Amino acid sequence: MKSPNHQPEKKPPSYSPKPTAKSPRFALWEWLASAGFTGLEGALLLIAFTSVFNVPGISIGLWGMSMGGLIYAQWKRFIEKIDFLILGVLTLAVVVLVPPLHSMPVMTVIVSSIVAASGAIAFTALFRLILKILSR
Question: Is residue 16 part of a domain?
């Protein structure tokens, strides 16, 4: 006979490991494409911000915020693959075709952007190689 105050037996809680959030995995070509895009956009945005604002602090601050946003968008994969090409060409066209956004010759803007993208790719490849060697 059950008493009126009888409560059902409580089972001990089962402890299962919580799923851990893994950071996105990137293939080598994705690392290099992201580095090239970041270098290109970084150079173009820096040229545009320094041409528009005469105060270096404002230019660098806006550039840093923009770069942080671009890197975060790449990491969360909001922009990837074909978006790199579209945004890169669009930014280059805007900076080159709008005269107040560049205070130097157009060819210098294009070459410095390509050099920055190439440097970012080389830098990323070098440190990826060093990481591989050290992880063995």
Answer: no
CA–CA separation, 49 vs 45, rounded Å?
6
DSSP run (H or E) holding 17: none
| Tokens linked to 33 | 């494409």
Tell me the C-alpha distance between 69 and 73, whole Å. 6
- As for how many domains the chain has, the answer is 1
Q: What is the pTM of this model?
A: 0.79
The model's pLDDT over 85-135, given as tens digits with 9 standing for 90+, comes to 999 999 999 999 999 999 999 999 999 999 999 999 999 999 999 999 999
Helix (H, G, I), strand (E, B) or coil at 19: coil
Helix (H) or strand (E) holding 112: helix 106-134
